[in-house]
Sulfite reductase [NADPH] hemoprotein beta-component
Amino acid sequence: MSENHLLSPNSAPHSDVEDIKRQSDYLRGSLTETLEDRISGSIPEDDNRLMKFHGSYMQDDRDLRNERNKQKLEPAYQFMVRVRAAGGVVTPEQWLMMDNIAQQFANGTIRLTTRQSFQLHGVIKWNMKQVIQEVNEALLSTLAACGDVNRNVMCNPNPYESEVHQEVYEWAKILSNHLDPRTRAYHEIWLDEEKVVDSRDGVEQEPIYGPVYLPRKFKIGIAVPPSNDVDVFSQDLGFIAIHEEGRLLGFNIAVGGGMGMTHGDPKTYPQVARVIGFVTPEQLLDVAEKTVMIQRDYGDRAVRKHARFKYTIDDRGIEWFVHELEQRLGWELEPVRSYHFEHNGDRYGWVKGSDDNWHFTLFIQNGRVKDEGNYLLQSGLREIAKVHTGDFRLTPNQNLLIGNVTSEKKPEIEQLIQAYGLTDGASYSALRRNSMACVSLPTCGLAMAEAERYLPTLLDDIELILDEAGLRDEEIVIRMTGCPNGCARPALAELSFIGKAVGKYNMYLGGGFSGNRLNKLYRENIGEAEILNELRPILNRYAKEREEGEHFGDFAIRAGYVKEVRSGLDFHE
Ligand code: SRM
Ligand code: SF4
């Protein structure tokens, strides 16, 4: 077994981030001093690297960047804070706390993410400690929301729709706790816990991660067929629940998915996870732990672009991985069990659970919770949270489920939904209901083009084409990101747009409707007029020539617009 993660920094090729992690004393660095410094609203780069593990990124408002530059002012530094809860499940009290912090310390809005977390934007350095303390007082956390560790564990947000959902959610929580970093740095820096001098060696302090953590971020999601809302094939490690007559039998394991790539660098590519075997629920933790440790030991620590688990697997082969995993487990995986996914989107409106409680899935455009014009979404949700006795569930598609509403409470919640005009998306096109866009500008430092702020208006225009073609109610999955990092999982959409430069996008076609197949580049670097000109004939032809039940992504391949992509290794061919 390679002991890559334990080698001294000089004995193996490694990126500068590896040095920062190793020298940080388990993620402490000089964060305490940096936060106390009142002279600058920014933090040094080394601390910024560590800050990610604590759930925050330093950013600046890019809308203001040029103007401030002209005035010779430093950028308007601010922080993004990511708050996670396994499976995205929070109580009404926690919702109210997030709402309150957003108004008091951030830009006023709440952003629901593609991994069922919350993001706040625009928090200034002086307020960071109070924000993180309040988050923790509400029993939520920002620890490991970002950084080279396991991220928020995703799972289907309908636990009460069936007993299986509930069981799977319990496993998601256990898995999430098991893979949390053990360092006390977070508690010392943010929660004023006293530093305990610890003579134990590093492996004991972080028994799973070791002193340099993982080479890169690591993501886990659990899907409950027939819904693939968590996009299980995009995860580093995915679990597919196998259930029979309401009983959870276990999970198929999928490994090596990921969405990120770099424009113009064919060595980087999105990849779909491969299904390698079946395990019982009791074996889940062992498999997850050993998989994380394999990536810890074999992942590339020299080139961060090449450090995700998908490359570790693709470079060495899936057979190598299964062998290594079984060696470490000391037992063999069972053969893959059959499963079937129908879609990767959300099902909106009211659903009655098997325990007779009700759940309402709201459509939230690109996850942004705010009051805008007459649409008082944030206020409406606040009023609902004040009386709601169930919970809220953030969905993997940036929407929100008002969960576990009793039959007695339902009229009151329904009345508030009506009073605030909160929408289940029924009045929108099915395309819009199946849309996602990443945050992008103005906060994301890596954005090359707009996404969240632009997709809604592009959809207005595409809807005109859909109306002409009679496709308004046709479910088509569309996603947009401001850069090829793929935060809205665009490579798994039937139609997607990835930013190249301001106003310019690459257009992709041919993804699978249930998130089971990557799409392929169709047109490069095109602006709005070209996008609409390209799409019009394709959508019209789809309306006329599609076969019974044929999805748009499948049609795009059958009609010859793009070639089918079976593996990320063929993505650029
Ligand atoms: Fe992401 C980096 C936002 C889900 C792949 N992502 C970022 C940063 C932190 C930008 C940065 O590094 O400076 C973005 C912050 C923008 C902002 O202003 O808020 C950002 N990512 C998001 C969110 C908020 C998008 C959204 O609109 O919801 C999602 C937060 C998820 C969460 O709650 O944890 C988000 N990011 C994803 C996903 C989707 C997923 O995980 O299901 C992916 C693709 C899956 C994957 O990881 O392969 C994703 N984000 C990336 C990458 C590319 C990683 C790679 O393999 O190369 C980066 C860049 C990086 O890590 O260097 C990135
Ligand atoms: Fe930023 Fe790119 Fe992620 Fe969008 S896809 S949030 S632009 S890193």
Observations:
- The first strand starts at residue 56 and ends at 60.
